[in-house]
Amino acid sequence: MSAPDETRPDAAATALPAAELPAALGEPIPVAEPRRRPEVATSGDRTFEGIALLVLSVGLFSVMDAMVKWLGASYPTFQIVFFRSLFAFLPLSIVIWRVGGLRQALLVRDAGGQALRCLFGLGAIVLFFYCYAEMRLADAVAIGFAAPIFITALSVPLLGESVGWRRWAACLLGFAGVLVMLKPGAGGFQPVALLALLATLFYALAIIWVRKLSKTESNISIIIYFTLTTTVVSALALPFGWVTPNLPDFALLVAVGIVGGVAQIVMTQAFRLAEVSILVPFDYTAMVWAVGLGWLIWDEIPGLNIWIGFGLVLASGLYIVHREAQLRRQRGLARRLQVKR
User: Fold this and answer.
1) Is the residue at 57 inside a domain?
2) How far is CA 253 from CA 97, 130, 183, in A?
3) Is residue 63 within 8 Å of 72, Cβ to Cβ?
């Protein structure tokens, strides 16, 4: 899922440009930094490795989304979120160990900002998981790809960033695509699609707060506090809708968390090995996965409006990423020239 990237302060330079990821994956994925800052590889071999890892992570997230949809027919959304969050700690424990242990991971400087990021992220994951169960999987994923549009628009009032007419035009094109997918006023309109759009908005807000936090907070702390929040909040909701799973379903619930956590780590590594502008187009393969899995498991075929709308959103998102990559290079050149002076 792809979206706009902005030039970030040096303090945030090791963070994954999460704002360039589409929302269909269900939650923001900041990167957990290693002990020493790695350099982004420029060799072709490492770039291809990054692309391969990105495609793998998208596939893992898509399988997770399909499991969430399958389980959503029998289990409450908060119960699925609980297992997704709790068992994600198994693979994430490796990252925690790499950055120096739990004490380092839990270090926080901006508690208020962390709380807002967790609130928005919680809203996104709960609503996305609910929509996966209630909608065709590809429909929910396609709407989620509108995240870059929201992030671009919201970065003006919330981050004070300037957006030129080209990106505003791309946003308008993307919003047109969203309207085509929603089909407002048409007989086939699904009210639940508005929840998918709201989930995308929450996702965009979470990403914006990740950008803000990246100036003062470690990336692993952003991950840990979000995962802790979703675990605790969903656990509090369990007594009000717990359904005891049978053994196969319990295995699926655990797999949701493990697969999601592994996918998070794999995507992190992908963005360390290759440039964001190269990787983002491959993230749209999530739509291929969603269509394929929806057809194989539930015999779901997206309507023509989804394909047309997704095409518009795809064009919008890719242009925003392309334009931001150009601006980033220009700003980098300007800074180097200033240093030489």
Assistant:
1) yes
2) 25, 15, 33
3) no
Number of H helices, E strands in the chain: 14, 0
Q: Which of 226, 320, 216 is nearest to 264 (CA)?
A: 226
In a domain, 1, yes or no: no
Domains of the chain: total: 1
Quick one: CA dihedral 103, 27, 129, 71, positive or negative? negative
Kindly report, residue by residue over 282-327, the tens digit of the pLDDT.
Answer: 888 899 999 999 999 999 988 888 899 999 998 988 888 877 777 7
Taking residue 119's Cβ as centre, other Cβ atoms within 10 Å add up to: 17
Q: Which residue range forms the structural domain that includes residue 265?
A: 10-340
200: Cβ contacts below 8 Å, ≥ 6 apart: 23, 124, 143, 144, 146, 147, 150
pLDDT of 21-50, one tens digit each? 433 344 434 443 443 444 444 444 588 888
- In a domain, residue 3? The reply is no
| Whole-angstrom distance, CA of residue 312 vs CA of residue 125 | 25
Kindly state the tokens that stand for 194. Answer: 């508005």
**pTM for this predicted structure:** 0.81
**Inter-CA distances, 246 with 66, 82, 91, 238, Å:** 19, 17, 24, 17
Between residues 6 and 145, the one the model is more confident about: 145
The closest of 151, 122, 132, 28 to 70, measured between CA atoms, is 132
Instruction: Name residue, tokens 């048409």.
Output: 186
**Could you give the CA distance from residue 182 to residue 198 in angstroms, rounded to a whole number?**
12
- Contact criterion met (CB below 8 Å) for 1 and 147: yes
Q: How many CB atoms lie within 10 A of CB 111?
A: 10
Other CB atoms within 10 A of residue 177 CB:
27
Q: Is residue 168 part of a domain?
A: yes
292 Cβ neighbours under 8 A, 6+ residues apart: none
Whole-number Å distance between alpha carbons of 317 and 293: 24
